[in-house]
Amino acid sequence: MPTNQEKEQPRRRQARGERRIAQLLEAAAAVFCSTGYTAASTNAIAREAGVSPGTLYQFFPNKEAIAIELGERLMHEMRETYGEALAPIDPATPLEEAVAAAVDRFIDFNRRHPVFFTLMHGPDIPGRIAEEHDALHATLVARVEALLSPFLPDTPAVDITRTAHVCVAMYKAGLELVLASEGAECDAYIQELKIVLLRYLEPLVGDRLARGPASTPAT
């Protein structure tokens, strides 16, 4: 039977491999953000990671494989962010507070991972990432629909879908400005984005968000 030491060696090798992969993905994120996906190279990623190209090729055959792995990990985390940001709202929550909370969570994710925007919205991203992004976009729209539906009980589903698409489009447009700025200017753009979304939703939702979803009057 294998000794404890023999059992431990594969685990140590696996842990070292995971650390190396994380190191390479972090380096790739920096390179993709600074040069874009097309101009990036495996040599530049290896240099950023402080390893030889041969070491990189032990884990990834090309930069597309690196981008796909990085994108999949970030999309998994983003899906968790969706769950937190678009969780059911307390009926007592004012619309302004609900919008601000959702925007803050999404902005925080994208500011911590600026490469996510680079990979998801660049003109030259790998096809597999584009497909994943389309699925992620559809999920986000569906979550916004689910968030709004209880507060728009008399609104046709097609109109709610349209409203959700507009909200997501406005967020993405504002996000590009946020990520391109820093400091006080960045904070100002975040506030402007919240105001735009709030002003758009206020006439549609009215005071329902403050009162909660419509309910049947007591008899």
TrEMBL record:
Keyword annotations of the record: DNA-binding, Transcription, Transcription regulation
Fetch the InterPro entries from UniProt: DNA-bd_HTH_TetR-type_CS, Homeodomain-like_sf, HTH-type_TetR-like_transc_reg, HTH_TetR, TetR_C_22
GO molecular function annotations of the record = DNA-binding transcription factor activity; transcription cis-regulatory region binding
User: Which residues mediate DNA binding here?
Assistant: 41-60
Keyword Nucleotidyltransferase present in the record's keywords: the answer is no
Q: Which residues form the HTH tetR-type domain?
A: 18-78
Pfam families from the xrefs? TetR_C_22, TetR_N
**Entry keyword DNA-binding:** yes
* Superkingdom, taxonomy of origin: Bacteria
Q: What name goes with this protein?
A: TetR family transcriptional regulator
Q: Which organism is it from?
A: Streptomyces capitiformicae
